[in-house]
Amino acid sequence: MSESETTTKNETHDHISQGRLKYFIGDPYSLDDPQKLTMRRKQVIIAVVALSAVTGPIGSMIYMPALLAVADDLHTSSEAVNGTVSAYVVFMGVAPLIWATLSDFYGRKRMYLSSIIIGIIASIICAFSVNIAMLVVFRAIQAAGLCASQTLGAGVIADTIPMKQRGRAYGFFYIGPLLGPVIGPTVGGVLSQYYGWQSTFYFLAVLGGILFILVALFLPETLRKDKSQADQQRSPNHVKNLLRAFIPLLLMLHDPSVLVVTIYSTVIFASLYFLASCNNPTITDTFQRLYGYNQWQVGLVYLAFGVGLCLGSILAGQVSDWVLQHLRRKNNGQLVPEMRLRAAIPSFVLIPAGYVIYGWTTEYNIGVYAPIIGLFVYAFGQMSAFTPTNVYLVDSQPGRSATAIGVNNCARSIAAAIMAIFSTQALHSVGPGILFTILAAVNVLNIAMIVTCMLFGQRWREKFASKQAEQEKEAYEKQKAHIHHDDEEHHQHRQVALEHSLARTASRHSTI
């Protein structure tokens, strides 16, 4: 073989190796369009991100049956052990905000792989904890790693699935995080009973390893960025550019449409934790006290609750797509994100009805099937609201979908953590009938939030986008005026980067 042929062969081999490496770690500068992937490939992607989204919720709930065992083994109080739960819940809400912003800057896949590695390492260290302080710290780090997948998954689907098909995709995606709370306590109870509480963390580490392999092999990078942004990341001002990537997060906190939908979602999610709290599970308390159920039988009740959540998620996603297409035809073919919110209308009745049925049937001990029906109705209604509103946030924030979902998740998690503290005390103070009637009334009042967004959301977004465009244009002009102070070597790259930034802003505003 000649020297030239050998050189060509080596170059080809190097090119293939580089291509494989780019796929493994993710290449946001690829030229192919992720929305043009085959349907089978998209289904695989949705399955992978849905499985990955199991880790955060199951990481929270799998640990619950072992709380007393942890207190005994580490020679501490139950209150101190509850600190590990609080640390997990707080970081479960806050950490995804950071992951979402980083994923918009570096790419989805890199953040997936990084977060899973952090979750695996923290899970192993949790199993080796020798005191409660060590466990609290690494439970927080574990949450930061395991809870990234739900926010990142929302971004992946937004990158991959066209707007008119997203409802169905998100309906299937949310089955993942919904399965976590359903199967977590059962798996955790078996593991901790037969293999010790440390085995729950080993299980999470193994699960993380499996998901790492699935993400590395079957999840392509779905974020797309232009070459000027690559120059930004390699520039001497890389840290400054990274910090600038958090600006959309801060701006989103002032977007009325995001705030109103987040408040609506927070209320319905916080209300959920009066039923299925992490620290004080009201369902468990009620069915053990009133109906004499053992832990296995209570698990079946949670299964009915979980079926309602999963079925509601799937159907709500499909209905939201149908509503969007139906209203699109009536609007001369134009899609408006607020159209999707009308798919949440059934939840206006289902959520309060489920609360009232469950509350008063347990108040008067009217058989065991009646409250289970109430739980199913409520769970179905919960997802009838949750799925369309989350997809709306993705549709209305193109290019910043992961950040929008991160803001929403953060607010919901903090509210849920607060509600979890008071659930059992409230139940014992006023009784289930009055408690869940109050929650039904709160959710009826909460309808005003989503109706207001249906009516005025588009106007709010357009006004906010116009104001933001003016501010970014002013910032662009100021930065452009300072370019001549830079070295000649960086002059062109910085100018191009600024122009691309302004162009992306204009493009994003035009799409909504």
TrEMBL record:
Transmembrane segments: 44-68, 80-100, 112-134, 170-195, 201-219, 258-276, 296-320, 341-358, 364-381, 434-457
Region of interest: Disordered: 471-493
SUPFAM superfamilies: MFS general substrate transporter (SSF103473)
Membrane topology: Multi-pass membrane protein
CDD domains hit by this protein: MFS_Tpo1_MDR_like
InterPro entries: MFS (IPR011701), MFS_dom (IPR020846), MFS_trans_sf (IPR036259)
Keywords carried by this UniProt record: Membrane, Transmembrane, Transmembrane helix, Transport
Major facilitator superfamily (MFS) profile domain: residues covered: 45-458
Statement: the UniProt record of this protein carries the keyword Transport: yes
Gene Ontology cellular component annotations, sorted alphabetically: plasma membrane
PROSITE patterns in alphabetical order: MFS
Compartment(s) where it occurs, according to its Swiss-Prot or TrEMBL record: Membrane
Highest taxon of source: Eukaryota
Residue ranges with Basic and acidic residues bias: 471-491
Example GO molecular function: transmembrane transporter activity
Keyword Signal (UniProt): no
The name this protein goes by in its record: Major facilitator superfamily (MFS) profile domain-containing protein
Origin organism lineage: Eukaryota, Fungi, Fungi incertae sedis, Mucoromycota, Mucoromycotina
